[in-house]
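new request in #modeling-help
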Amino acid sequence: MSLEQAQQFIERMKTDEAFRTKIMAVEEVDGRLNLAKAEGYDCTVEEIKSVSTELSDAELNSVVGAGVLTWGYDPSYHCKSAYGGKCC
Amino acid sequence: MAERAIRSPLRHSTARLLAAMDASAGTAVAFHLPSVRTVASDEQVRGMFFLPEEIDLDAIEAVAMAPGGPSFLMRDGHVQLHPDCPAARVYAPTLFEAHAPDFRWLEDLGAFCIGIGRLEQMPPVTLALNFEDGFARGAAVFSSSPCGEALDLLAAIGVRLLGEQPLPDDRVLVRLENRIAAHVDAAALSQYRRTMNCNLFFMSHGNASGEIKEGLEAASRVRIAAGRERLAQAVIDLSAEALEKGLSLQMRVSGALETKPYGDLVPLGFLGMALRRIVDHDSPLAEAAAHHLSRIQKYLQNHRTAGLWGYARNCIPTSTDTALVCLAGLLPDFESLEQLRGTDGGFMPQLVTEVAGMLSMQRSPATMHWEEEDLPTTALLEALRLDAGLGIQTDANWFLKRSARWCGLYFIPPTLGLWALARIAARLGRSGASEQQAADHDVALFRETIRENLAALRTEEGGFGRFDPVLQNGFAVLAMEEIDLLDRTTVAAQLRVLDGWEAPQCVETPFYSTVVSASTQAMVDDLLQNSNPEKALPHGCRHQVSLYEDPARLIVTAVAAAALHVEANPSMEAIFLPLSGKYTKTPRAGLRCLDSPTEQSLYHVQSYCIPLKA
């Protein structure tokens, strides 16, 4: 078990759609982590949470730095498209 | 069912009144009058219970429809029986005692109403109801399950059957509720001529046939006719208010507690549609409706962009919004609209470009699933083209091939999607509609597919869908009208529309949108959660749902009004659209009816995520 494996697991979840679909097809969290272990990623819930917090902070800085608008916007600011979501 | 100790039902004034009658009285139904008076005017109360003007209603605790006429338990405790009603005797069972054992199953019910007795040559019946929030809720002990062709029409008198369970003695405990305001309204609309039918229905163990069936059909007609006029007035009032105050739908972003006003043009399309119905109908409100329709049409014309319309003012125009706004009787710039036609012949919702423009939104992985041709939008717009005398690029076979993706990228009520399909199906069915019209058998098959999908959306109690009753049933009525299903099923749906509009239980939600959330945190949240109703992971991607709610009831009222202007026949047996539970064929198009707007949205969007996979 290691933070490194947790980080590798999350990266693969983000980039490999087939892998992500396979993992998320399992109903319970324990089952998902067991499947991840069988795939070579032996990590705990706490390790995943710890690593994801670091990654999310980095993402947030990147997004803010690039001036990208986020979803769930205030239409009074940015609305140009129908049905919410993306501002133009 | 395990037996358990219960408190004596005699603490209810209804039971005490029945306990003052001899068992030979046979049949009586007692009501707690102060509860009835919370939802009925004194005039209505006197009409329902045949009470003369000189009787002081304030002095009455319980009133019973009993042999000979009304009998009373007064507030001071004394009993006043009708002269023809036999009074309880010493050493002989009272009317209540003759049925008391049934209260093993009826538990603490009966505070509002107790009905006991039997019809000649029929087993005895016991009914007990409590009263809460305008509803009488409780159960009845019947010898068998309710039956009869007109059970679907019980909504005409406010009654809903909620389920049943077998009893150890082979009888059935039937749970039910009665919205008393609707019940009283139905009674008043029929000048109280059929008040006794209610007792007859229960004393016949819930048999809605014969005289009861005829009574329910008549009650349906008058309730719908009265509701049509009330809704027409409501549409006129709301149309004026919407223009003056700029009323709109409310957007609720995924997980947010607060909503924000968003969507002021599309509701006007629906209000315009309803106003057109009122104008076309022989109604005293037709002139006023025409005036407001003209105002709405002018307002919408002033808010066109490139000959099309957006969801709200200052939004880019979309094909979906244009189709909905045009329901008000407007025509778009068809040439401009063709820019949104995709390579497969259907309409994309909006233009998407790498860089955002005045008429296009910026391409993004988060909304890649929006870049697909939308089936119901295409159906609405092709129907509009046919109405305008133009040719179309699709045919019945085109829609049939795509009918598995039947519901739409933005429409929540499944019946809204089916209504859109039914509109084009009806027009394709008219001879010579288009040079490209498919063979007649394709049109017939397309209509059959719509019918089967509608059948699959019916619930056991006879309505459509499991949430948002006005929208789900209203669009079902409009869809059935397009494919000429105008029988008892349609009337039953109309009654649910009226009931849902008169007594709203929720804010209804016509539209949704989703965006793909690619953040690590969102992905991890899903990963570490056993169940998440919003997770929707089509192709492994997390979709966040935004809902577009209608708290001002703009679209809700418009759809309800339009649905009640459909002429359907409650006496026509519903042989073409039986209850889903009795429907043996599997619908040709994949379809599921879920339990909430969010769940339904996430179900719909799964069909629109193929580009992500590609």
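bot summary: The first helix of chain B runs from residue 13 to 18.
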